[in-house]
Amino acid sequence: MSIQIKQISKQFGDFQALKPLNLTINEGELVGLLGPSGSGKTTLLRIIAGLETADQGQILFSGKDVTQLHVRDRKVGFVFQHYALFRHMTVAENVAFGLDVLPKQQRPSKASIKQQVAELLDKVQLSHLASRYPAQLSGGQKQRIALARALAMQPRMLLLDEPFGALDAKVRKELRRWLRNLHDELGFTSVFVTHDQEEALEVSDRVVVMSQGQIEQEATPQDLYQQPASRFVYDFLGGVNVFEGEVCSTAGHSNNRLQQGKAWVAFPDGHKPQAGQLYLRSHELSLSNQPSATAHLPLTIKAVSLIGAEVRVELEPLDWQSPDLWEVVISHSHYNNWQPQRGDTCFAQPQAGQLFTKNKENQPLALNWTKEHLLIKTA
Amino acid sequence: MTPANQLSKSFTYKSLISKSFKVTGRQVLPGFALSLGISLLFISLVLLLPLSGLLIQTAGMSWADYWAVVTDPRVMASYQVTLLMALGASLLNGLVGLLVAWVLVRYTFPGKRLIDALVDLPFALPTAVAGITLATLFSASGWYGQGLAKLGIQVAYTPLGILIAMLFTSLPFVVRNVQPVMEDLNSGDEEAALSLSAKDWTVFRRVIFPAIWPALVMGVVLSFIRSLGEFGAVIFIAGNMPYLSEVTSLMIFVRLQEFDYAAASAIASVILMASLLLLFAVNVWQTRYLKRLKGN
């Protein structure tokens, strides 16, 4: 079932939760609504489900206008962040609820309901918990039961509101893979809300990034990562270091540089130097003891943390300004050879980045230094 | 604090959830022994000691005497009236109280806070005042009484009057037990049920009601027990005709006026035991029900 959202807007008192927005979700697609809290993503999901009514605009399911349709008639599966399992019913009774409350003519026989519940519990791999009460389950189990309960109605659309938000990291990872598989197997249209960029990028076919009631960008995870459309998206995807500079033409300075005080980054060949903010991801930088021919970014090491597969170095700009501390990720082998200590000075060398110029707000300029770096090295 | 108020404070629904006490590890604030000691002493002096006195007084009677006093036909008739009217009043209160709690929790309207405060009035008002007021209202010339008389219904000085008085004094038990539980209900549960295509009534019956059911039962039972012992509000409107509209608490009063303390205590002990048994039974039932909901 496809979903078409046309000029939907919503206001809560003085707060504009959603500015008029349009979005189309294709049949069978798994779409992640990503954004910080207050960005309107949950409101949008609830409007799709019919749990909230839009002030304006239209919602179409497979071309049919459902804007005025009550939530109970929309036949969507909805999964809540806090599970919303019925505490006084057993797991099996919870899963059977949607079938039990069907009008008499449509309701399957008791035996048939029992069988369907058994199949669903089997699907979520929790058959052994059928006679337990929700209070006796772990968070991950509760969420799987909540999913089974929603699936019992055989919805053609599944809406999930921060489904893994209340779970710990390991269970989250497990469950989102499981959700992805389930989606592929059953082939319904799914929309899920999350504030976790990793989750959105890993699970979704397409990610819709929202901020302040607006859609910032909709793209596949790859495109989103490679071509963030705005500073917000770049920032929100995380691990970004910012270098803001001007192009100076004073004597003694090269005019091919983005300069701030004594710190600078040279523009790669073929790019017109422009003032702006250079966004560099933490793994698109390298660190060394010497400045290079293309960059002079002195930094002081504030902290070194060894986490998993990589080493994260926190750095403070030396004699230049940045809104936040810098963070660069290096490999263990580099770390072992180099042995950086807190308080050491080092230099950052960018490999790739995006320049957000002052006049063109939404079209960042992609810069890449790898080629030049190689040229300099071989020279 | 009126006795009614004490009862409501000590037997609210919430206090039952966390009733097992344990001192685990070091507490932030000291003084467990002292505070427990004072509490136990107070409860013993104010509640247990008078109750024991009552039982000791009856202990002086032989079984045959005791049995004769508590099964006296006039007393038996009073049991019947009291039980029936208390049952009617508490069940009606269950319905009305549930509705009042629902309205207070679910809707906003002008004067809501006033109504919320008014619910406690029967606790605050001296029961005798309530009794006189009700008797005046429902007498043949009273505001309500006139209208009802036209319909051929007489309330004052009949068992029906007893029911009205009991209704009045015990309504807060239901409202105040159900209200906090209703406020704590998770709106997600209802939304989940709606998204599963349940009809409004089904959502109430199968999702909301089971969650407030234990609190409602507790409220109704407390209301019933309160009605069993109600005296002040009832005697002014009951008419107090032997075998017809005498409540059991009045029988105790009558025995006391005859200086027959033992007989008064004997009848009182029957009410006491009935109340305690009922309270205990509901407690056990509710604890089991909640255990299931909250896990072990």
TrEMBL record, chain A:
Alphabetized CDD domains for the sequence: ABC_CysA_sulfate_importer (cd03296)
MF GO annotations: ATP binding
Ranges in a coiled coil: none
SUPFAM superfamilies linked to this entry: MOP-like, P-loop containing nucleoside triphosphate hydrolases
Key word ATP-binding present: yes
Domain ABC transporter: start-end pairs: 3-237
InterPro entries with a match to the protein in the record: AAA+_ATPase, ABC_SmlMolc_Importer, ABC_transporter-like_ATP-bd, ABC_transporter-like_CS, Mo/tungstate-bd_C_term_dom, P-loop_NTPase, Sulph_transpt1, TOBE-like
Protein name: Sulfate/thiosulfate import ATP-binding protein CysA 1
Keywords annotated in UniProt: ATP-binding, Cell membrane, Membrane, Nucleotide-binding, Sulfate transport, Translocase, Transport
From TrEMBL, chain B:
Transport among keywords: yes
InterPro entries in alphabetical order: CysT_permease (IPR011865), MetI-like (IPR000515), MetI-like_sf (IPR035906), Sulph_transpt2 (IPR005667)
Keyword Membrane: yes
Protein name in the entry: Sulfate transport system permease protein CysT
Pfam family, one: BPD_transp_1
PROSITE patterns (alphabetical): ABC_TM1 (PS50928)
Subunit structure, interactors included: The complex is composed of two ATP-binding proteins (CysA), two transmembrane proteins (CysT and CysW) and a solute-binding protein (CysP).
Start and end residues of each ABC transmembrane type-1 domain: 79-282
Organism: Marinospirillum insulare
Function description: Part of the ABC transporter complex (TC 3.A.1.6.1) involved in sulfate/thiosulfate import. Part of the ABC transporter complex CysAWTP (TC 3.A.1.6.1) involved in sulfate/thiosulfate import. Probably responsible for the translocation of the substrate across the membrane.
Main location: membrane
